[in-house]
Amino acid sequence: MSTKWFVVINPTSGNGASKKKWPEIYTELIHQNFEFEFVFTEYEKHSLVLVQNAIKQGFTKLICVGGDGTIHNVVNAVLSLNPNNLQEIKIGIIPIGTGNDWVKTYNISKDFKEAIKIIKAEKTIIQDIGKLQITASGKEVYFNNLAGIGFDGYVVNKVHKYKNLGFLAYFTGAIVSLTSYKRSNLEITFNNTNLQGKTLMLLIGICNYSGGGMRLTQNPNSTDGLFDITYVDSITLFTILGNLRGLFNGTITKLKCVKNFKTSNLKVKILDSQETYIQADGEIIGSGNFNVSLLPKAINFIVA
Ligand SMILES: Nc1ncnc2c1ncn2[C@@H]1O[C@H](COP(=O)(O)OP(=O)(O)OP(=O)(O)O)[C@@H](O)[C@H]1O
């Protein structure tokens, strides 16, 4: 087992900010007495291979420099490898992304010096993780923050156009997309509940924030063994514009048109032929019918 840290940097995250800030982050890691090896990703999902190789070499302490997509890839690397020493693996985050949503739940600072101090203290939380399986392909994806289908996936698919707007990228993408999005006919089944019909979006939440600081699930708790589900069949642009603060303080979830549930499993069937994107932690992962289940207390993160 290595006592060194393995640092993976996505140079494209935060619209290139990770690459620019790396020399200062490197200096600060040395300054705070970290022993580490580091590597830059060279293509999308490259962190999956890099992290799996690092774990096979005996690294247990990982640092992720990037945004929510980079954290998502590191989590997927660990859980798809499912090593014998999973309990010993810890993930620390230096948040340099666009939305930086996952870190907000745990008050991890966006100031990299503060984020490094938090990692140094090695206080961990064992968090719940979602496992999503696309029925047709059997593809499995883990998520640590929030997954969704419908409008949510549509916005994520468009958001790259607005990445230069920073945290407003998702909000801008959502407002621009609301007029053009065509709802899909979905069937959603969990516990004794069956929802069927034209659906704007379904969100499956673990942590508190998504879409660049929005609070779109009502009562999330990242360690309670349950997803927080938000289901919206329709909402007008007018209602959203009248509740802009509610998007960011969570009161939007109290509107009559927004339904909230808790469950640890659910099934989603697409009842029409329209392609509907599924997103997990802000990454498009496919389309089609899928099942989701919760893995309670599945992975250690270093938190404030
Ligand atoms: N070297 C690379 N070249 C191109 N894409 C990469 C590279 N390394 C990682 N990626 C991809 O970059 C994407 C975005 O990364 P990330 O989410 O960390 O940044 P972000 O989108 O700016 O932040 P956020 O998700 O917090 O909004 C991920 O899908 C990841 O697979």
Automatic annotation (TrEMBL):
<dbReference type="GO" id="GO:0016301">
    <property type="term" value="F:kinase activity"/>
</dbReference>
<keyword id="KW-0460">Magnesium</keyword>
<dbReference type="InterPro" id="IPR045540">
    <property type="entry name" value="YegS/DAGK_C"/>
</dbReference>
<keyword id="KW-0808">Transferase</keyword>
<keyword id="KW-0067">ATP-binding</keyword>
<keyword id="KW-0444">Lipid biosynthesis</keyword>
<dbReference type="InterPro" id="IPR050187">
    <property type="entry name" value="Lipid_Phosphate_FormReg"/>
</dbReference>
<dbReference type="Pfam" id="PF00781">
    <property type="entry name" value="DAGK_cat"/>
</dbReference>
<keyword id="KW-0418">Kinase</keyword>
<dbReference type="InterPro" id="IPR001206">
    <property type="entry name" value="Diacylglycerol_kinase_cat_dom"/>
</dbReference>
<dbReference type="GO" id="GO:0005524">
    <property type="term" value="F:ATP binding"/>
</dbReference>
<dbReference type="Pfam" id="PF19279">
    <property type="entry name" value="YegS_C"/>
</dbReference>
<dbReference type="InterPro" id="IPR016064">
    <property type="entry name" value="NAD/diacylglycerol_kinase_sf"/>
</dbReference>
<dbReference type="InterPro" id="IPR005218">
    <property type="entry name" value="Diacylglycerol/lipid_kinase"/>
</dbReference>
<dbReference type="GO" id="GO:0046872">
    <property type="term" value="F:metal ion binding"/>
</dbReference>
<keyword id="KW-0547">Nucleotide-binding</keyword>
<dbReference type="GO" id="GO:0008654">
    <property type="term" value="P:phospholipid biosynthetic process"/>
</dbReference>
<keyword id="KW-1208">Phospholipid metabolism</keyword>
<dbReference type="InterPro" id="IPR017438">
    <property type="entry name" value="ATP-NAD_kinase_N"/>
</dbReference>
<keyword id="KW-0443">Lipid metabolism</keyword>
<keyword id="KW-0479">Metal-binding</keyword>
<keyword id="KW-0594">Phospholipid biosynthesis</keyword>
<dbReference type="GO" id="GO:0005886">
    <property type="term" value="C:plasma membrane"/>
</dbReference>
<protein>
    <submittedName>
        <fullName>Lipid kinase, YegS/Rv2252/BmrU family</fullName>
    </submittedName>
</protein>
<feature type="domain" description="DAGKc">
    <location>
        <begin position="1"/>
        <end position="136"/>
    </location>
</feature>
